[in-house]
Design brief:
With 68 residues, the protein is α+β, with helices and mostly antiparallel strands. It has one domain. It has 1 helix and 3 strands. It binds zinc ion.
């Protein structure tokens, strides 16, 4: 999935990146999964008009984690 248009203001001026913490890139971990080894990275999109942020992650990896 990608954000191509801002759902808040309608702008199509979208930039793609990631979020950063001081220690590591954020990963997505389901509340249901038991193992934390394969947590997929979070991809972020920001609207350059209003600053709205939207996050996506790898759904195949999330599905795999739910099976383990
Ligand atoms: Zn916007």
């Amino acid at each position: 999935m990608e954000m191509t248009k801002c759902p808040k203001c309608g702008s199509t001026e979208i930039d793609r990146g990631k979020t950063m913490s001081s220690t590591w890139s954020p990963k997505y971990i389901s509340a249901k999964q038991k193992m934390f080894s394969q947590a997929p990275e979070v991809v972020a999109f920001v609207c350059l008009n209003c600053g709205y942020l939207e996050f996506y992650t790898d759904t195949e990896k999330v599905r795999q984690n739910l099976k383990e």
